[in-house]
Amino acid sequence: MAEHRSMQRGALLDAARSLLSEGGTDALTFPALAERTGLARSSVYEYFKSRAAVVEELCAVDFPVWAAEVEAGMARADTPEGKVEAYVREQLALVGDRRHRAVVAISASELDSGAREKIRAAHGGLVAMIVEALEQMGHAQPRLAAMLLQGVVDAAVRRIELGAAEEPGVIVDAAVGMALRGVRG
Predict the structure, then answer these.
(1) Distance (Å, whole) CA 53 – CA 30
(2) Residue 73, pLDDT score
(3) Residue 111's pLDDT is what?
(4) Which of the listed residues 4, 58, 161, 181 has the most CB atoms within 10 Å of its CB?
(5) What b/e string do you get for 35-49 counting C-beta neighbours within 10 Å, with b at 16 or more?
(6) Is the pLDDT of residue 42 over 80?
(7) Four-point Cα dihedral 82, 84, 90, 96, nearest 10
(8) Full-prediction pTM beyond 0.90?
(9) Taking 70 as the threshold, does the pLDDT of residue 109 lie above it?
(10) How many CB atoms are closer than 10 A to CB 78?
(11) Over 90: is that where the pLDDT of 139 sits?
(12) How far apart are CA 29 and CA 15, in angstroms?
Protein backbone atom coordinates (compact mmCIF):
# COMPACT_ATOMS: atom_id res chain seq x y z
CA MET A 1 0.00 0.00 0.00
CA ALA A 2 2.77 2.47 0.90
CA GLU A 3 4.57 1.75 -2.36
CA HIS A 4 1.34 2.36 -4.33
CA ARG A 5 0.79 5.70 -2.56
CA SER A 6 4.38 6.69 -3.24
CA MET A 7 3.97 5.86 -6.93
CA GLN A 8 0.70 7.81 -7.12
CA ARG A 9 2.29 10.80 -5.37
CA GLY A 10 5.19 10.65 -7.84
CA ALA A 11 2.77 10.49 -10.77
CA LEU A 12 0.92 13.52 -9.42
CA LEU A 13 4.16 15.48 -9.06
CA ASP A 14 5.23 14.50 -12.57
CA ALA A 15 1.85 15.62 -13.90
CA ALA A 16 2.19 18.89 -11.97
CA ARG A 17 5.63 19.50 -13.54
CA SER A 18 4.19 18.92 -16.99
CA LEU A 19 1.20 21.16 -16.41
CA LEU A 20 3.36 23.98 -15.03
CA SER A 21 5.85 23.59 -17.84
CA GLU A 22 3.17 23.63 -20.52
CA GLY A 23 0.74 26.21 -19.19
CA GLY A 24 2.15 27.94 -16.12
CA THR A 25 0.39 28.16 -12.80
CA ASP A 26 -3.07 28.57 -14.33
CA ALA A 27 -2.75 25.06 -15.76
CA LEU A 28 -2.06 23.50 -12.36
CA THR A 29 -5.53 22.51 -11.21
CA PHE A 30 -6.75 19.46 -9.37
CA PRO A 31 -9.06 18.46 -12.24
CA ALA A 32 -6.09 18.64 -14.62
CA LEU A 33 -3.95 16.60 -12.22
CA ALA A 34 -6.71 14.02 -11.95
CA GLU A 35 -7.07 13.83 -15.73
CA ARG A 36 -3.31 13.46 -16.29
CA THR A 37 -2.96 10.70 -13.72
CA GLY A 38 -6.24 8.90 -14.23
CA LEU A 39 -7.26 9.50 -10.63
CA ALA A 40 -10.58 10.81 -9.45
CA ARG A 41 -10.37 14.46 -8.45
CA SER A 42 -11.31 13.54 -4.88
CA SER A 43 -8.32 11.18 -4.83
CA VAL A 44 -5.95 14.03 -5.65
CA TYR A 45 -7.09 15.71 -2.41
CA GLU A 46 -5.98 12.61 -0.49
CA TYR A 47 -2.40 13.42 -1.51
CA PHE A 48 -2.42 17.23 -1.49
CA LYS A 49 -4.68 19.67 0.34
CA SER A 50 -4.07 22.55 -2.07
CA ARG A 51 -2.08 23.81 -5.05
CA ALA A 52 0.33 25.36 -2.55
CA ALA A 53 0.94 21.90 -1.08
CA VAL A 54 1.78 20.60 -4.56
CA VAL A 55 4.14 23.53 -5.05
CA GLU A 56 5.84 22.93 -1.70
CA GLU A 57 6.34 19.27 -2.52
CA LEU A 58 7.77 20.07 -5.96
CA CYS A 59 10.25 22.47 -4.39
CA ALA A 60 11.18 19.95 -1.71
CA VAL A 61 11.81 17.26 -4.33
CA ASP A 62 13.26 19.20 -7.27
CA PHE A 63 15.28 22.02 -5.77
CA PRO A 64 17.86 19.78 -4.05
CA VAL A 65 18.45 18.03 -7.38
CA TRP A 66 19.25 21.33 -9.12
CA ALA A 67 21.36 22.51 -6.22
CA ALA A 68 23.39 19.30 -6.40
CA GLU A 69 23.94 19.83 -10.13
CA VAL A 70 25.11 23.40 -9.55
CA GLU A 71 27.33 22.31 -6.67
CA ALA A 72 28.87 19.50 -8.76
CA GLY A 73 29.69 21.97 -11.54
CA MET A 74 31.30 24.31 -9.05
CA ALA A 75 33.31 21.46 -7.51
CA ARG A 76 34.88 20.74 -10.92
CA ALA A 77 36.26 24.30 -11.09
CA ASP A 78 39.77 25.00 -9.80
CA THR A 79 39.56 28.76 -9.22
CA PRO A 80 37.07 31.09 -7.54
CA GLU A 81 36.37 32.65 -10.93
CA GLY A 82 35.77 29.20 -12.37
CA LYS A 83 33.33 28.48 -9.55
CA VAL A 84 31.42 31.69 -10.31
CA GLU A 85 31.30 30.79 -13.99
CA ALA A 86 30.08 27.27 -13.17
CA TYR A 87 27.47 28.68 -10.78
CA VAL A 88 26.02 30.80 -13.58
CA ARG A 89 26.36 28.27 -16.39
CA GLU A 90 24.96 25.32 -14.42
CA GLN A 91 21.86 27.25 -13.41
CA LEU A 92 21.25 28.49 -16.92
CA ALA A 93 21.78 25.01 -18.34
CA LEU A 94 18.78 23.93 -16.26
CA VAL A 95 16.45 26.42 -17.94
CA GLY A 96 15.21 23.91 -20.50
CA ASP A 97 14.63 21.23 -17.87
CA ARG A 98 10.90 20.93 -17.15
CA ARG A 99 11.64 20.69 -13.41
CA HIS A 100 13.14 24.14 -13.70
CA ARG A 101 10.27 25.46 -15.79
CA ALA A 102 7.86 24.20 -13.16
CA VAL A 103 9.59 26.06 -10.35
CA VAL A 104 9.91 29.22 -12.45
CA ALA A 105 6.17 29.04 -13.11
CA ILE A 106 5.57 28.40 -9.43
CA SER A 107 7.59 31.38 -8.30
CA ALA A 108 5.46 33.65 -10.46
CA SER A 109 2.23 32.50 -8.85
CA GLU A 110 0.28 33.64 -5.86
CA LEU A 111 1.32 31.26 -3.11
CA ASP A 112 0.61 31.16 0.56
CA SER A 113 3.33 32.43 2.88
CA GLY A 114 4.50 28.90 3.78
CA ALA A 115 5.15 27.95 0.17
CA ARG A 116 6.85 31.29 -0.52
CA GLU A 117 9.09 30.86 2.51
CA LYS A 118 10.17 27.39 1.38
CA ILE A 119 11.05 28.73 -2.06
CA ARG A 120 13.00 31.62 -0.50
CA ALA A 121 14.88 29.24 1.78
CA ALA A 122 15.77 26.96 -1.13
CA HIS A 123 17.07 29.90 -3.15
CA GLY A 124 18.98 31.10 -0.10
CA GLY A 125 20.76 27.77 0.01
CA LEU A 126 21.71 28.13 -3.64
CA VAL A 127 23.05 31.66 -3.10
CA ALA A 128 25.04 30.47 -0.06
CA MET A 129 27.01 28.11 -2.32
CA ILE A 130 28.81 30.95 -4.05
CA VAL A 131 29.70 33.11 -1.04
CA GLU A 132 33.06 31.41 -0.37
CA ALA A 133 34.22 31.86 -3.97
CA LEU A 134 33.26 35.54 -3.82
CA GLU A 135 35.17 35.89 -0.53
CA GLN A 136 38.22 34.35 -2.21
CA MET A 137 37.86 36.87 -5.04
CA GLY A 138 38.12 39.68 -2.47
CA HIS A 139 34.56 40.95 -2.32
CA ALA A 140 34.07 43.13 0.76
CA GLN A 141 30.44 42.01 1.02
CA PRO A 142 30.32 38.49 -0.43
CA ARG A 143 26.75 37.75 0.70
CA LEU A 144 25.45 40.88 -0.97
CA ALA A 145 27.53 40.12 -4.05
CA ALA A 146 26.06 36.58 -4.09
CA MET A 147 22.52 37.93 -3.98
CA LEU A 148 23.25 40.37 -6.78
CA LEU A 149 24.91 37.61 -8.79
CA GLN A 150 21.76 35.52 -8.37
CA GLY A 151 19.82 38.51 -9.69
CA VAL A 152 21.91 38.38 -12.87
CA VAL A 153 21.19 34.65 -13.17
CA ASP A 154 17.47 35.21 -12.57
CA ALA A 155 17.36 37.95 -15.23
CA ALA A 156 19.12 35.64 -17.70
CA VAL A 157 16.64 32.86 -16.89
CA ARG A 158 13.72 35.18 -17.61
CA ARG A 159 15.34 36.34 -20.85
CA ILE A 160 15.82 32.75 -22.03
CA GLU A 161 12.34 31.69 -20.90
CA LEU A 162 10.76 34.60 -22.79
CA GLY A 163 12.39 33.46 -26.03
CA ALA A 164 14.42 36.64 -26.36
CA ALA A 165 15.87 37.73 -29.69
CA GLU A 166 19.31 36.55 -28.57
CA GLU A 167 20.23 32.88 -28.71
CA PRO A 168 20.36 31.23 -25.27
CA GLY A 169 24.14 30.75 -25.58
CA VAL A 170 24.59 34.50 -26.10
CA ILE A 171 22.53 35.21 -22.99
CA VAL A 172 24.53 32.66 -20.96
CA ASP A 173 27.85 34.14 -22.12
CA ALA A 174 26.62 37.67 -21.32
CA ALA A 175 25.52 36.57 -17.83
CA VAL A 176 28.91 34.94 -17.20
CA GLY A 177 30.65 38.09 -18.46
CA MET A 178 28.50 40.25 -16.21
CA ALA A 179 29.27 37.99 -13.25
CA LEU A 180 33.02 38.05 -13.82
CA ARG A 181 33.65 41.51 -15.27
CA GLY A 182 30.61 43.62 -14.47
CA VAL A 183 29.33 45.98 -17.11
CA ARG A 184 32.78 46.58 -18.64
CA GLY A 185 32.26 43.51 -20.86
Answers:
(1) 12
(2) 96
(3) 62
(4) 58
(5) ebbebeeeebeebbe
(6) yes
(7) -130
(8) no
(9) no
(10) 7
(11) yes
(12) 10
